[in-house]
Amino acid sequence: MGARIMVEMPHVRPVIDGRWHITNLTRWPAPGATVTTICGVSETAEYSDTPPQEVVRTCWHCDFVYRKEAGIPWYGSSPHPATQAEEPSR
Ligand SMILES: [Zn+2]
Predict the structure, then answer these.
(1) What is the pTM of this model?
(2) Are the CB atoms for 64 and 83 separated by under 8 Å?
């Protein structure tokens, strides 16, 4: 019996243009399939077994949408970054 690798889909975060995004995936997208994030960015799914070579940052637009849908308030000392950042790329 081998080691079964389990991944919970809500924890899968696609990295697009150096930002962690959030999706509503229910299953692994096939390589080449289109993945759409909750902030509205769409990109082709690809897989890599090497870590990113750059610092990966949070997509604040996804964070904002996720918090709103889950009812999670923002307790930052300043307004949520998505209210001050430019629109998501693409
Ligand atoms: Zn996003």
Answers:
(1) 0.84
(2) yes
